[in-house]
Amino acid sequence: MSRHRTRGRLGAGLRIGVAAAALASAAAAVWAQMATPDRIELPGFWPTEGAPPREGFVGPATCAACHAAHAKTQPTTSMARTASRAADSEVLRSHAHLAFRSGDHEYAVSSGGGAPVFSVRKGAQSASVPLAWAFGAGKVGQSYVFEKDGTFYEGRLSYFDTLRAADFTPARAIADPRDLTEALGRVVKQPELGRCFGCHMTAPTAAGRFDPEGAIPGVTCEACHGPGREHVAAMRLGKIDAARAAILNPARLEAADSVDFCGACHATFWDVKLAGETGVARLRSQPHRLQSSACWGEGDRRITCVACHDPHRPLVREARAYDPRCLACHAEAGAAPPPGGTGKVCAAGRTAECSSCHMPKYEVPDMHFRFTDHLIRVEGGPPS
Predict the structure, then answer these.
(1) Which of 88, 241, 350, 376 lies 20 to 30 angstroms, CA to CA, from 182?
(2) pLDDT digit string (tens) for 129-170?
(3) Which residues sit opposite 369 in a β-bridge?
């Protein structure tokens, strides 16, 4: 849930009407880049908005009937597996007991049969709760949510893949909890609750009502394309134009809109600016870093998120795989620049793995993971 803490700090007092301010500005780029709270107030579907009714969603199986290729690969992505019921968590199934100690408190999750149970022990005292939801596919880590007395909590124990073990949930370490309830977790209230579930599930909020029990775990088709019932009905009647109008195809968005679209969960340029984040905290917002790059200008389709990453396929981690994208703008040594590109060549004489230098990785300490900084620049340096 850590990415959503950025947006969780965007309270009503900070929603300053970026859209209205941009309309008054002569800079087209400022208008194009918007804060997510402003985006979801505009007409039409936008990820995480929670306005469409529950009955408008048909589920990925229905989409698969026509979109077989995407339906085959998308469920293997980390986005599709970014939430599950705790009892269905692959991480917890493969780690029957996760535990760590902090001072005189021992934190543990036991998954032997039935729902995984999260417990905290201090001397002879202990408290335990069944876990309800697991957030994160486990490639980086996985955090857990439980419900107690009608209140949702973010558990303080998370799994980290680089450690193959548990530690404190990012930014949730606590040295001296007042009691075992505080040691177990942090209360998560609306609207943060809706935002967190909204980025890990499909339609946890429908018709303005938060109801994760009725949601589809993970980011599935309709989390990005919008509710599909009207689209499906029109297709079955052969009304192609009506069908296309009833669904959102993010591939048709303008460059800045496209990056902001992904930023609904990964934090847009203005989400980060309004939250006042600096340093390594900014690094994890790929849209903000990308739109802060000098080569972004007023938006360039060649460097949008989806220019490099196919949301229907697992993330490619080899730096060399992205070289063709770099060479869509930049020339190889001795070669003519591509149409609309630049003649600049690598000063270091490198011919491969451009992103390893121009988009370096940095350790995010409480995530126990090195994240790629999407601020494209000539030389690396600490995030600012």
Answers:
(1) 88
(2) 999 999 999 999 999 999 999 999 999 999 999 999 999 999
(3) 364
Angle between helices 192-200 and 255-266 (to 10 degrees): 110
Residue whose tokens read 């036991």: 110
pTM of the model: 0.88
Residue 69 burial by Cβ neighbours in a 10 Å radius (0-12, 13-18, 19+): exposed
